[in-house]
Amino acid sequence: xxxxxxxxxxxxxxxxxxxxxxxxxxxxxxxxxxxxxxxxxxxxxxxxxxxxxxxxxxxxxxxxxxxxxxxxxxxxxxxxxxxxxxxxxxxxxxxxxxxxxxxxxxxxxxxxxxxxxxxxxxxxxxxxxxxxxxxxxxxxxxxxxxxxxxxxxxxxxxxxxxxxxxxxxxxxxxxxxxxxxxxxxxxxxxxxxxxxxxxxxxxxxxxxxxxxxxxxxxxxxxxxxxxxxxxxxxxxxxxxxxxxxxxx
Length: 248
Known about the structure:
Blueprint: H1 7-11, E1 17-21, H2 26-37, E2 41-46, E3 58-61, H3 67-81, E4 84-89, H4 104-130, E5 136-140, H5 144-147, H6 153-173, E6 179-185, H7 191-194, H8 198-207, H9 216-227, E7 238-241
Parallel strand pairs: 1-2, 1-4, 2-3, 4-5, 5-6, 6-7
């Protein structure tokens, strides 16, 4: 990156290849569109039966909790779009319940999808990331991974794990010019949260200091920033996009 480049130049992702997991979800769709509008060649990855979001050049379906599936996805993207230099891991699930009633399967499934998938992605993207000097990975965590949440021990543990994984990966990959960061949203206005009881939504809004819940675009804008050269000196960090729900 040249010191004389403009802010517009530093924001551009022109010609770069990006993988967005959970690309058919509310946040994922916004991320795909944002990266595509910035010039990236975007591959969306999600579960079978999902539809390709606007902006994705290709849409692949896979179970990211299984390492062979992740390895195959990385290879397929490389053959179709070129070597990926950007990753935004939005894929995630919840299986809520107080810990003394939580089944072992519900515990393990959330950890596999939310955390194991991120490890597999970083592991198999590292060889191609190392060949490029401006690679960036963004993992979607949650403020509940920092503060905990009643009834979400599995989800909170997986999101806390993403923070530890990202900080370690940032140290290990920084020498190759690869940056790894985390976005920790608070509550976000998605289809999933719209179905929550009204009192829970109102409580989350009251927790903010800005008086509103984030939209998917708020998260996507943060992802674009962390993928772009505007954040060229930022790695191993947790960026909260929560309207002030968690201020420490």
